[in-house]
Amino acid sequence: DGGITQSPKYLFRKEGQNVTLSCEQNLNHDAMYWYRQDPGQGLRLIYYSQIVNDFQKGDIAEGYSVSREKKESFPLTVTSAQKNPTAFYLCASSGHRTAGDLTYEQYFGPGTRLTVT
Amino acid sequence: QKEVEQNSGPLSVPEGAIASLNCTYSDRGSQSFFWYRQYSGKSPELIMSIYSNGDKEDGRFTAQLNKASQYVSLLIRDSQPSDSATYLCAALRPNFGNEKLTFGTGTRLTIIP
Questions:
Q1: C-beta of residue A34 within 8 angstroms of C-beta of residue A46
Q2: How far, in Å, CA of B75 to CA of B50, rounded?
Q3: Whose CB among A7, A83, B19, B41 lies 3.0–4.6 Å from B76's, allowing a Cys bridge?
Q4: What confidence category does residue B8 fall into, taking pLDDT thresholds of 50, 70 and 90?
């Protein structure tokens, strides 16, 4: 059963604590992404990785860190430096494309809802 | 100006009617376009992709692309209450090895029984 899994579904933390969100995919996709979604708002890109052991900052990387040690896994750490960490966090992945290939599909995991108090 | 713009809605459509969702984009280098459906509290689900000018049909859904006008739309025929959701438009500019989607903020659609 192929797909993207995120755990946990709900996460509660005290302010000042670091927390790591899990994302695993068995789609054999090269690229993986982390987004944040706040109520009533669109998706904002936090970090993305096109290949193992490499990743790039997205639009709102401050206060977050990632690693990509395995193709299947792309965990996100929300650090205490993130000012407003309460949000819905979405992991996504997409397959490899070659030059001239316009087709592209990015799929999302079920998300983790993080609440920090 | 946002790179991908959508009317936030809410858009209310009677059951059985055609729902029309619109999206404009500013980056002329964008080549691929996508529609995602997101139910409240859930993650986005890819429902349509379109890569060339014209119409692409899949069941009750039709995506339309006009690159000259930088306009993408999604038509939902015979709208059902289960179509009530937020619809996200996304664009991709080819940049092999460094690709990321640009999303609009979404249009909330409500189908009225």
A1: yes
A2: 13
A3: B19
A4: confident
The burial of B111, by beta-carbon neighbours within 10 Å (0-12 exposed, 13-18 middle, 19 or more buried), is given as: buried
Residue where the block lists tokens 């990387």: A61
Alpha-carbon distances of B1 from A13, A14, B23, B25, B67, rounded to whole Å = 36, 37, 13, 10, 18
- Residues B74-84 have pLDDT tens digits of 999 999 999 99
Q: Which of B100, B38, B2, B96 is nearest to A101 (CA)?
A: B96
pLDDT at B2: 72
DSSP per position, B75-113: EESS--GGG-EEEEEEEE---TTS--EEE---EEEEEE-
Q: Is A42 in contact with B104 (Cβ distance < 8 A)?
A: yes
